[in-house]
Every structure is written in structure tokens, then in C-alpha cells.
């Protein structure tokens, strides 16, 4: 602090930036003149036809998306519904019996005895 005081007394306070007299009195008027209303009057033209076109495009995209979704959603069910029970292989039924026996934990002897009772 003492060093700063001594330096200030020896060299004074430097003021590298000076403002001309009356600068702030004319400042507001200069800004208004620089950015006049004529420059801001140039606006983009309003495109009124663009809004309905945008809504129509959104609706078209929604319709096409729904069509594609529902068309693909029904493809899998048509294939399953077209298979008849007669066309299923007997091996499929055997797999079911194997899975049920594993679930019930029955061995072959138990299965033979159950089938013999029927």
C-alpha cells in the first residue's frame, strides 16, 4: 500500500482515456441518428401461404406414418392366422409333452404308468 502511494505521488495517476467535453450530452442523439427507424423498416415479407402448407405437410406425414405402421402391424398376425392346426407337425406336440414332463419332474416310468391308467 505504501509503495503504491509513493508511486502515485511520483508519477501521478495515469489517465489514458479522455472523454471529449459534452460527449455524454450528445450521446443519446448520436445513437438515435445512427440507428434510425429507416434501417429497421426493412423487414422480411410475411409469407401467409407458408403456414397452411406447413400444416398440410405435417398432416400428410402423419397419415403416411399411420399407414405404414398399421400395414406392417397386421403382416405378422396374418401369417399366424393362416396356419391351421392340421399343418402343425407332431414333433411340436412332442416338444410340449417333453416340456410338461420336465416341469412336472416325471420320469419315463411315471409317464408310462399315467398313460396306462387312461
Automatic annotation (TrEMBL):
The alphabetical list of record keywords is: Membrane, Transmembrane, Transmembrane helix
Question: Where do transmembrane segments lie in this chain?
Answer: 49-70
Query: What name has this protein been given in UniProt?
Result: DUF3379 domain-containing protein
Q: What is the lineage of its organism?
A: Bacteria, Pseudomonadati, Bacteroidota, Bacteroidia, Bacteroidales
